Amino acid sequence: MNQKREARPRVAIVFGGRNSEHAVSILGAASVLGAIDRAKYDVVPVGIAEDGRWVVVSESQRFAIEDGVLPAVEASGAEVVLRSGAAPLVTLEPGRVPVELGQVDVVFPVMHGPFAEDGTIQGLLEMAGVRYVGSGVLASAVGMDKAYMKLVLAAAGLPVGEYVVVRDRDWRVDRARVLKEIEDLGWPVFVKPSRAGSSQGISKAHDRAELEAAVEEARRHDPKVMVEAAIVGREIECAVLESLDDAPATASVPGEVLVSEGHAFFDFEAKYYPDQMRLEAPADIPVEVAEEVRALAVRAFEALGCEGLSRVDFFYTPDGELILNEINTMPGFTSLSVAPQLWAAAGLPYDALVDRLIQLALRRSPGLR
Hints:
By secondary structure, this protein is an alpha+beta fold. It contains twelve helices and 17 strands. The strands form four sheets. Strands 12, 13, 14, 15, 16 and 17 form a six-stranded antiparallel sheet that branches. Strands 3-2-1-7 form a four-stranded mixed sheet. Its EC number is 6.3.2.4. The active site is at 21, 198, 337. Pfam families: Dala_Dala_lig_C (PF07478), Dala_Dala_lig_N (PF01820).
């Protein structure tokens, strides 16, 4: 074996992106960069700026929320081009010969939302023949689009709540019918962009006036909108992790999200600003309910054909019913995010979780599987 192949696996941590979850991605990347074993892996931080440029990022750039200001990728580094071949990452600087970054063994896309978590970057990496952490193209795309996600979950026999999908054309040309369909769900309703995450663009509507405003707000993020009947219940979440030895995927302990006063639901500020939420893990629920949560979470993971990890969110109603709200194929990934905390409560600390995900990616081949 030559010297190049004996070197440490090279991991490109890719973050940022062209969507409203740009800053959230940077927060997660900061945690991964701080936890990854530098003695075991050679690490290359690559940021995607808000204008879409890929750049090599200095680890001295700002990765945290400071004085309420969200971080952003500073597009001042050497531009990165992804290509097929032995050295898929190449840097380009004006007036200089392109420089190869060397063999990239795996990409860790700490990215969320459209043009990232939705199968687009996964497809790009497949085209370049590069291994990557997380689910493939189809699972990522279905998991990102709440309308298709619910169709797949329901087809697999999993319990989902009532909803109405508001498509762009229908809202523009047949609004009265759409509003009637939504009113039939009963009040209140939750209005969400169909293909966004981190609670971006979500509103709670109690009447038609609030509903129209909520749909317009969601449409600022996505022309396709999901409207869901409100479900009274506790928010229970469970993480799922692929096995390294071809055994079935395993579920973490379930946890309960408890948000501080002033939040009508688990919104962006509650998720990412300090002291706005608390995760109780394991959740204070009956043992048989916890086991059902874990079983349903694994079934959802398998129904979409997920790889790597996912987080599955449920409502636990006062009459004891479990309703699956959604699955996230690349959940929030700071060390304080829900999925990593659930695994920490199950005995798998954050640095070990990062290592497990990289090892899972390294053992997979690009392409159909």
